[in-house]
Amino acid sequence: MEDKDPSTMRGSVALRLEPGGRAVLALRGHFLLDGGVPSHEEVARDLKDLKGISSVGFDCGELGKWDSSLLAFVLRLEGELGGSGIVVERSGLPKGAKRLLDLAASSPRGQARERERGSLFLRTGQWASSQMIKSWDVVGFLGEVSWSMGRLVTGRARFRGSDLLHVMHRCGVDALPIVSLISFLVGLILAFVGAVQLRVFGAQIFVAALVGIGMVRVLGAIMTGIIMAGRTGAAFAAELGTMELNEEIDALRTLGIPPVEFLVLPRMVGLSLMMPLLCVYSDLLGILGGLSVGVVMLDINIQEYLRMTREAVRPSYFWIGVFHSFVFGVLVAITGCFHGMRAGRSASSVGQAATSAVVSGIVSIIVATAVITYLCQVLGL
Amino acid sequence: METAAIKIENLTMAYGDNVIQRDLTFEVPEGKVTVIMGGSGCGKSTLLRHMLGLVEPKKGRVLYWGEDFWGADEARRLSIMRRIGVLYQSGALWSSMTLAENVALPLKEFTRLTEREIQELVSLKLALVGLAGFEDFYPAELSGGMRKRAALARAIALDPEILFFDEPSAGLDPVSARRLDELILELKESLGATIVVVTHELASIFAVGDHSVFLDSVEKTITAMGPPKDLLAHPPNERVREFLTRGGSLN
Questions:
Q1: What is the Cα–Cα distance from A364 to A222, expressed in whole angstroms?
Q2: Which of A31, A33, A41, A75 to mutate to test the interface with B (most CBs of B within 10 A)?
C-alpha cells in the first residue's frame, strides 16, 4: 500500500474556458470510492452561471487513479446539465471509463416493478382473499392426506418402510431425553405448587392424586405434543421445504409418485404411533417427579404415594390422555408437512415454513384439547 | 516486465489424508485473464477456495501482491479480501434481498458513501451487466443467467483489482455464455482488472484466456502452463491434449 500525501489524494476539478463557448474540466488527483469526489452540483452550477457555454469536455492529463466514482461523477454531472442545453463530451475521459459508460448506456432497461401500496381497504381485501385461497389449499392438502390414508388401509400406499422406521426412531427413541427431562420437571413443579396449598389442610397426600390425574389425563399429552411440535414439526417443515427448493418433490411428481403418499404418510403414521408411547412415558416420568417432591419435601412414604396415585387415576383418564396424544401426533405431522411443502424457493422461506409449522402445530394442539375436553363433557367421561 | 498479482508457492490441498493436489506453483499475471482448468473433480474449485481465504492450505503459500495471505493477521487478510471480487458458481445472491440490496451491501459495509450515492452506483453496476431497471427484483424472480449477471454486478461493486469467476458458463446457453465471455474481456480492458477463471468450458478458455494452468486429476499436480492456444498447438502430454481437443474429436 503506497503512502500518498493526503493533499494529492482527493480528486479536484478546475474549470477553464476555451474559445467557441467550450468549457474544459481538468480533473486532477484520485477519484476513488474512499477518497471523496468533488460536488457535481457545484460544478454544474458554475457552468450554468457562465453564460454562453454550449459544451463541456474533460482533460484527464493529471488524473490519478479512478474507479466507479469517476463514472458516477460524470453521470451525475450529465444529469444536472440535462435541461440546460450544455452538451457533455466524453471524449477526453480515460479510455476504460468511456467504454464502461458506453456499456452501461447500451444495456436495455428492464421494466421496473411498481410496488405501490394500495389503500387500507384494498389491502384488507387482498389479505382476506389470500387467506381464503390459503384455507382452500389446506382443505386440498387434507383431502390428499385422507386419500393416502385410504390407500394405506387397503395396503396400496407407496412409501418406503425404511422411511417409516427412520421417522419412528427419530420421533421415538431420539425424543426420549428431552421428554424425560421436561416431564419429570413438570411433574415436580405440579407437585410442588399443589403441595404448598394442600399442606395448609394437612392434605398433602393428595399431591399424588393431583400429579397423577393431571399428567395422565392431559398434561402428559400436551407437554409431549408441544415438545414434538417444536422438535419434529419444525424438522418436517425444514426437510420438506428444502426438498421443495431442490426440486426433489417435483422429481417424485414426474415419476408418478404422489409426494403426499411418499413423504407425508410415513411421517404421519410414524409420529402418531410414537406419540402415545411417548405420552405414557411422559406420564410415568411426571409421576416420578411428583414422587420425588412427595418423598423429599412432604415426607410421604413411597408406597403410600403410589397407592394414592393408583386409586386416583382411573383407566378412562389413561385412554383419554393417549387419545389426545394420538390426535396431537397427527396434527403435528400434518402442519409440519403442509408448511414444508408450501414453502417458497429461498433460504428465508424454509425458516418461515419451520416457524409457521411450530406455531400452527401448537395452536392446533390447544384447539384440539378444547374440543376433546368438550366432547368428554358431553359424553360424560 | 509483468508483475504477478497472485503467486501460489508449493500449495498442497488435502481433506484429511486425502490429497487433492500437491506442490502447485504458478503466478497470476496482473491485468490478464488466467484460466484454471482441468477435468471434473481435479480440485479447481478447491484451489479457488484456498485462494479466496475460505480454506487454509495444508502446505504452501498464497501471496497477494507479494504478501503472504495466510501468514498475515486477520485485519490484513480482510483488507486484501476487500480488493478482490468473486462470482460464485450459482451466483450465491442473498435470496431474501433485492438485487439492489445485494449489490449495495459491500458498498454499505466498506465505504462511507451516502445512501443516494450508493443507489446511483448500484444502478450503474446493474446497467454494466445488462440488468438496468431490475433493482427491485428478488433473485428467485430471475432466470439463471440473469442471476449470474446480478452476482457479477455485486462482485464488481467495490471495483476490485482481482476478479474470480467460478465456472461462469455453468448452466448458461451458448449465447449467454458468449456474452458473459465478452463481459469478462470488457472488464479486463476497461477496469484493468486481473481475472482468474475456473472453468472447463473450452469455448471460454480459448476466448478469454491469456494464460492458463492445467490441474491433472491423476498426477494431482500442474502438468501444463501457458497460453491456451499454445497448449493446444503443443500439448505437453496426452491428458492435456485430450482435454483441449474434447477427446480428440475437434481440431
A1: 11
A2: A33
